[in-house]
């Protein structure tokens, strides 16, 4: 939207913006207050734009972490955290596909519409704001006292989302040592469901390699070491069959995460043939 210049100063600013081919995009402070993060609000605004421009017929689109940083100055870790926040709220869903894998995003338009409704998206009084430090990214997040009170009075899940994802991966990892260090490494990565499926698939493949089978698993790295080194990205050579002859390798399962893992394993093996 181009505003009408009412004086020479406004006209000069419009001329400057036109010269660089740019414009000023309004930032919704109320979104940042409700999400508890300026980064999450910026990411949500950009994802809405990306959906409008790039979504396919099924509503899926993707934007890389590098593109998000170039567009909004939101870094890789902050983008991942923002994406996880929007996923936990049910506003978006994600899936990993392609080689190399990319995280595709789709809006839950019902949830988004409810979240953006006028009753929800009203600016709260400025006196109700307080600043809190972001210990990881060294940024400043804005939260309202009303939202803080709502969070305090709302029963929290008995298990945090990051711990559920960690347990899903850790249950498949064959070396159960130094769990505390592994949890710290995991929280720094803070993977979404798509990356967790990729990590679990990598463990399942590496468990069938000779290096991990040698001397009773003596050379399997500690869980924290595996995570810090991003060993899910390792290229794996020949692996032993995952099941006995006559037994289907991929059984029908009801768990959606297990189904996602098996689909990922099939894709990897099809690429090797």
How would you summarize what this structure contains?
The protein is built from 13 helices and 4 strands. The chain has helices spanning 8-19, 29-35, 38-54, 65-72, 76-88, 109-115, 145-153, 161-170, 179-189, 193-206, 210-213, 223-228, 256-272; strands spanning 92-97, 102-107, 129-133, 140-144. The strands form 2 sheets. It has a two-stranded antiparallel sheet. A two-stranded antiparallel sheet has the order 3-4.
List the helices and strands and how they pair.
Elements: H1 8-19, H2 29-35, H3 38-54, H4 65-72, H5 76-88, E1 92-97, E2 102-107, H6 109-115, E3 129-133, E4 140-144, H7 145-153, H8 161-170, H9 179-189, H10 193-206, H11 210-213, H12 223-228, H13 256-272
Antiparallel strand pairs: 1-2, 3-4
Tags for this model:
273 residues; 2 domains; two-stranded antiparallel ribbon; 13 helices; elongated
Q: Tell me about the biggest sheet?
A: 2 strands, antiparallel
CATH superfamily of the largest domain: Winged helix-like DNA-binding domain superfamily/Winged helix DNA-binding domain
Uncertain residue ranges: 121-147, 243-254
How much beta, percentage-wise?
5-15%
How many distinct domains? 2
Question: What is the average of the pLDDT values?
Answer: 76
Fraction of residues in helices?
A: 40-55%
Count of runs of 4 or more consecutive helical residues: 13
Strand order in the largest sheet:
1-2
What's the β-strand tally? Answer: 4
Shape, principal axes of CA atoms: elongated
Distance between the termini: 53 Å
CATH topology of the largest domain: Arc Repressor Mutant, subunit A
């Amino acid at each position: 939207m181009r505003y009408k210049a009412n004086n020479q100063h406004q006209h000069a600013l419009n001329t400057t913006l036109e010269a660089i081919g740019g414009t000023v995009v309004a930032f919704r402070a109320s979104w940042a207050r409700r999400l508890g993060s300026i980064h999450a609000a910026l990411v949500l605004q950009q994802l809405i734009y990306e959906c409008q421009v790039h979504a396919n017929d099924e509503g899926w689109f993707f934007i890389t972490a590098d593109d998000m940083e170039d567009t909004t100055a939101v870094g890789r870790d902050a983008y991942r955290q923002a994406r996880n926040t929007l996923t936990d709220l049910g506003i978006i869903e994600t899936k990993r596909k392609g080689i190399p894998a990319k995280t595709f995003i789709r809006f839950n338009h019902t949830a988004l519409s409810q979240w953006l409704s006028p009753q929800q998206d009203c600016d709260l009084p400025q006196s109700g704001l307080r600043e809190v430090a972001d210990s990881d990214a060294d940024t400043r997040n804005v939260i309202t006292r009303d939202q803080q009170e709502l969070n305090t009075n709302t029963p929290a899940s008995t298990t945090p989302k990051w711990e559920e994802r960690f347990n899903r991966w850790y249950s498949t990892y064959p070396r159960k040592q130094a769990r505390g260090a592994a949890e710290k490494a995991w929280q720094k990565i803070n993977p979404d469901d798509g990356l967790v499926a990729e990590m679990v698939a990598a463990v399942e493949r590496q468990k069938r390699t000779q290096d991990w089978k040698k001397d009773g698993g003596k050379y399997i790295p500690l869980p924290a070491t595996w995570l810090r080194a991003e060993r899910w990205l390792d290229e794996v050579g020949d692996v032993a069959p995952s099941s006995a002859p006559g037994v289907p390798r991929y059984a029908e399962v009801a768990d959606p995460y297990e189904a996602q893992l098996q689909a990922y394993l099939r894709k990897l093996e099809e690429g090797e043939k």
